[in-house]
Amino acid sequence: MPELDLVLTKYDGTPHRSIRTLLLGTDEFGTWLGTPRGSVINFHYGPTRTRTTTQDAVRVIAHDAWWMAMFLPAPDPTEIYCDVITPAVRSRTAITVIDLDLDVVRRRPNNHVEIEDEDEFAENTGKYAYPEEVITAATTTAATLQKALTTPAAPFNGHHQKWLTHLTSINK
Fold this sequence. Notes:
The protein is built from three helices and eleven strands. It is an alpha+beta fold and about 170 residues long. The chain is globular, with a radius of gyration of 15 Å. The two termini are about 15 Å apart. InterPro entries: DUF402, FomD-like_sf, Ntdp-like.
């Protein structure tokens, strides 16, 4: 199974976090990546430098869009975690995105959906001098994701299950 580094940076290019993933495939929604239980997340900020994942998870990085979503299996209280990002740039060995610090999350058990970190987004809008088109794209994307996770529309309607099953089957 091919491996890719998923690299998230801040708007000025400084490293934010990264994780080694398995390239599961692509479909009409985007590029699907798997992170098996035991994957190491590298943090490039704060006192904690790494964390090891405790369960399998899959991510989709939308084609030419401003978001990526991570799908976590039960019993994790977070079902879907969407990062608002700039469109991904892919090389042979990595997918790189700029994390705009605006997130949309759907939680179990009641499917509550909320936009998170609006204060961090506002702070970083000034800190990194986001252009107006970045601000507009990010806020529009967050509102669109909030609606899609509430509806729920594909791929947020269980579509990820086939990719999670695929990851689990190759990770045995």
